[in-house]
Structures are given as structure tokens and as C-alpha cells.
Amino acid sequence: MTATIEIQGLRVDRGGTTVLHDLTLGIGGGVVTGLLGPSGSGKSTLIRAIVGVQIVAAGDVRVLGLPAGASALRSRVGYVTQSPSVYGDLSVRENLTYFARVLGAPPAAVDTVIERVGLADMATHLVGRLSGGQKARVSLATALLNDPEVLVLDEPTVGLDPVLRRDLWDFFHELADGGTTLLVSSHVMDEAARCDRLLLLREGAILADLPPDELLRRTGAADLDAAFLRLVEAGAVR
Amino acid sequence: MSFSRTAATAARVLSQLRRDPRTLALLLVVPCVLMILVDQLFAGREAVFQSVGVPMLGLFPLISMFLVTSITMLRERTTGTLERLLTTPLTKLELLLGYGIAFAAVAIVQAVVVSLVGFGLLGLEATHSELLIMLLAVANAILGMSFGLFVSAFAQTEFQAVQFMPAFVLPQILLCGLFVAQDQMADWLQAVSSVLPLTYAFDALDRAAHDPSLGPRFWVDVAVIVGTTLLALVLGAATLRRRTA
After folding, report:
1. What does the mean pLDDT of chain A come to?
2. Are A196 and A223 contained in the same domain?
3. Among A56, A146, B56, B58, which residue's beta carbon has the most beta carbons within 10 A?
4. Do A187 and A72 lie in a common domain?
5. Which of A47, A99, A103 is nearest to A74 (CA)?
């Protein structure tokens, strides 16, 4: 597995405290990598560093061999922010049409992604009037428009019903099977089971980096929640 | 620099405005009502209305666009759409130009409507063509837009953004020469007045309305309006940071 995202000695400071401590890791294509950890553990900060919008204190982040945030990467890396970043005063289709033009995606992609996130019957609705989960899906759809090689999703399934969540995770695996690099953050441990590889983040450091079944085996815990607790108590496992 | 991304941004901003008919109505109706109000206020003193009417007409778009831009840009910052856009191929220049084109279109409509009321209904007269006045009004609108863009970086909430109007624009309106001619102000006020961009915007409108020769000062005024717009846009663009803490 060759790493499409390479992180070397990444440190991020915010307001005098260190949010990420000297992180070094590689993330490869063809699998879904889950970034798990409690809220405040630094997941969003790490994701923002990978898409190149985070001021970093030290270290090097490279995506597809280029420095994170490089202009050549901007049409090759898809990013979904934690809170939906779409226009509330535009309809679902208007939002996606705009992002399609900005990303240089074909106009036909708009309806494909609307279908994909299950909003076909909402296409003409104003985003501002949608529920939180529906807004999150519009935001997710914007990142799928141009089939990016690297897809970085910050808690994309928060507030979604279980059926839709399962469908989206199946879709993430479909994308990974096609060679896309997926990094998906979540703070819900039951989603961890759906990842091929887990990065457990706590207080800005990687606590564990392994597949979910391996995590269960090594900790001897019954479920991933318990496994995470045992790790916290025992210290890091690699 | 992509024409398609710029045009898409302009179209998106216009769609957003179209979805807000109340704001559009306020943008078009309020200046007209205020013009009628001023006309009535100076009823019987036609000369006063003639001297302040045209500059007022040309300064309204500046105030409107200042407010509209500072709020919309603040929304882009606080809702995360700005951060999202800056991770796409859209460049800052394309984003700003998109906004500029959309708001200039609105400013043209506003200038035409207010001119129709001012020149048509209220009998305002200008030495130079109405078209020149309208062009100045649009230039002022774009100046207001670039101010709004710049100050939006210093506001964390919409309340603060709105308060920048009395803090940033109102003093310039008081000192621009509309209320008291610049040469009749106290020395220190004259000095302050002569470094404020609105003084030049006012002077240009005043000359277009009343000075048959226009004079070289008119072109100085135009240069100051254009130069300040570019400066505020560059400073504003510098506040659109791709990387934040």
C-alpha cells in the first residue's frame, strides 16, 4: 500500500496549547480509514491540515506527493466540513450546480450526486429549510461531484438515520474499491466497525492504528467502545 | 483565472439575492423614498435640493453595497462556505470578481431607478449627462463593496458588521462636503476630510452636476475612487486567508 497522504512530524498549536503532537502517519488508497476519537481530540484539526486550511506549527503534510493545499490538489481532493458548508438561501440543486461549476465537474454530475445522497425528491427545496441530516447530505454531495482521488470527510454521517448511514458506508467502500483514498472521521464507535483501518486519536496523539478486529483481539474487549476505554487505560498500542 | 468560475460565482450571488426579495425591494425603494423626503424637506428652497440631490443620488449605492457586502462576506466566513470554497479551484480573485460583477449589476439597477425618480419625477438637473452621474454611482457602489469586503474581516457577528456603517461610512458622509462645504470647515476637519475617499466621490458628483468644465480635479477624484477601490480590494483579498488557526 503506497500512502497517498503522508504526514511527518505534524504539530498544530492553537491558543497556546498544542492540539496535535508530532504526528507521523501515512494513509493509503483502496481502503476506508476511520479517524476515531472523542470530540476535542484533534480530528477536525488533522483533517483541516490534510486539506491545507490549518496553520501548522511544524511538520510536513503531503497529499498525492504535493504539499497539502497546493493549487494542483484542489480539484483532486474532496473535503466535507464538520458543519454543513452550503448556502441556506439556495436550493439543493442550485448549491450543487454552483459547486459543480467551481470544481469543473460535468453538469450531469449534479443529479447523480443528489440521487446518491438520497435527496432526489428534495432537489428544489431551499437548503435552509432542510433538517440537519439533510443539510449534511447536501454538503457531502458537493464533495462527490468531481470524483476526487482523495476524499476527506469530517463526521459526514452525524444525525443520519441508520439505513442511510449504512448506504453511505457501503458507498464509501465502493469508492475505496475503485482506488479512492477515504479518510472519514467519527466520534461514534459503532462506525469504527465499518472501517478497514482505524486511527484512534486522543488528546492530539495517535493511540492506536490498526484494523477494528485486530483492536478487539488485542484488547480482548467485547465491543469497540470497551476496547477504546481499555486502550486509554493501558496506553498506546500500535 | 477562469471566466466560468467567476460567472458561476456572480450567478450564485445573484440567485441568493433573488431569493431575498425583501432586501432587493429595500435596496430599490428606500433610496427613492429618501430622495422624495429630501425634496419635500427643501420644498420652496429648490436651489438647496438641486445642490444636494445629485450627490445624494450617487452616494446611496455606496451605503447599500457596503452593508450588503459586509454581511454576505461575513456569512461566507462564519458558515464555513469560504473555507470550503478556498479548498476548491476557485481563486480569491475569481471569488471577489464574482461578487463585484453581481453587486455592480444590482448597483446599476439601483442607480437607474433612483435616477428615474431624481431626474424624472423630482426634476433634478445636472450640467453633465445623467449617464455620467449613473457611472459615478456605480463606481461608488463598487467602492462601497470593497469597503464592505474589507471591514467584514474585522466583524465576528452581523451586529458588529452593521455597526461598521455608522463607524466607518457615516463620518465620511458628514465630512465629505455634502452638509458643509469643505473650505468652510475648521482647519483640522479639512485635513481629515481631504484624506477620506468619500470626499472625492462627493466632489466628482458635485462637479458632474454643477461644474460645466469638470476641471482636472474631476479626474483626480476619479483616480482616487478607482485607487481606493483597488486598495480596499487588495486589502480585503489579503483577509481571505486560506489557512486559519
Report:
1. 91
2. yes
3. B58
4. yes
5. A103
